[in-house]
Amino acid sequence: IIPPFLPLAAYSPFDHAWPWSSFAVACTSCSGRQSGEGSVAGAFHFILYGLYSRLSHFADRRHLCVLPLVWAKKVGRKFCTAVAVTMGLGPSMATEVAAALTNRRASVVYLHCAECTGCSEALLRTCKPFLDTLILDTISLDYHETIMAAAGEAAEAALEQAISNPEGFICVVEGAIPMALDGKYGYVGGHTMLDLCKRVLPKAKAVVTMGTCAAYGGVQAAKPNPTGAVGVNDCFAKLGMDVKAINIPGCPPNPLNLVGTLVAFLQNKEIKLDDQGRPLMFYGQSVHDLCERRAHFDAGEFAPSFDSEEARKGWCLYDLGCKGPGAYCDSFERKWNGVNWCVANAICIGCTEPTFPYGQ
Ligand code: SF4
Around Cβ 227, how many Cβ atoms within 10 Å? Predict the structure, then answer.
């Protein structure tokens, strides 16, 4: 199917950049899930994204990864059910979640500060929801420096347009904010990350940190921290500005926790936070309380090594350094892409805590 369409999809006399570049970025941004597996759906994605991409540039519109709507609708119900369950609402509330999402696709501006992009990587590879569902059915991701096809002035214009949206926007921040030397340790598009945050965050309807670096400084604030990196709330407290972010920590966090928070916001639900700014619906219980190895902890059965028979039998990993008793998140319940979680094969390193990584 592809060959007759491909030249058309790739051709654009209006592109500022090499025509193939945004095409390639886009296909990477869906993790090759649909474009690289030789399926019929993949072929359609490949073709339709390319066509849309060209048309978007023609109309000078912003876009990110856009896949066939028919594909997104196919997984939409599953996604809403997953989000409803994540929020503790139960599968029967999927319709309510769907209504909240369909009626108001919130504009989201996603900023990158000092980070490794692992949180975006987690987001890109999530299957609950798939990224296309997230972008098409849930939010309008109007600016994301890693996956957006636009670059240079077009990207700057996209940001300006998004933050001028009269209906407002939600700002998601990934990465810590370097504050030393007036922010000169971190630039995006010629602006310091500090200045970008000062310009964008106070205008947002809500600010959500994605990952421990944005929440508390995390790895970016590792000693001796010459860049003066801090989390968003600490940064704005130091600046004396009234910005209070909801924290979704984790290294990286489960994307469902971000999506669930956005859904709760769209539904005007009260988002109860713990004393670290984390939504209690996701971070209300410790890893230890939820752990599948907990019975062995209570029985005093501790594995002597990772490759021991005891570890394979599910004995507790506390003696091997597990930080589950002091770490709060729903990793066991949520699992990664519904399949696995940290303590199944390794220890909890407490990555959702403000003390990370030094608390280890
Ligand atoms: Fe707790 Fe870790 Fe042992 Fe699980 S493995 S019971 S989280 S100490």
Answer: 20
Residue 248 to residue 212: CA distance in whole angstroms:
7
Q: What is the pTM of this model?
A: 0.74
Atom of ligand 1 nearest to the CA of 322: 2
Q: Residue of the nearest CA to atom 6 in ligand 1?
A: 294
Read off the amino acid at residue 116: C
Question: How many other CB atoms sit within 10 Å of the CB of residue 202?
Answer: 14
Give the DSSP letter string of 50-100.
Answer: HHHHHHHHHTT--------HHHHHHHHHHHHHHHHHHTTS-GGGHHHHHHH
Q: Are 352 and 329 in contact (CB under 8 A)?
A: yes
What residues line ligand 1, using a CB cutoff of 6 Å?
Answer: 287-288, 291, 293-294, 297, 316-318, 322, 324-325, 343, 348
Which secondary structure element, helix H or strand E, spans residue 105, and what is its range? Answer: none
* pLDDT tens figures, 210-254: 999 999 999 999 999 999 999 999 999 999 999 999 999 999 999
Tens-place pLDDT, residues 160-180: 999 999 999 999 999 999 999
Q: Rounded to whole angstroms, how far apart are CA atoms 222 and 231?
A: 12
Q: In angstroms, how far is CA 275 from the centroid of its own chain?
A: 22
**For atom 8 of ligand 1, which residue has the closest CA?**
318
285: Cα within 13 Å, side-chain hemisphere: 12
* CA 89 from centroid of its chain's CA atoms: 21
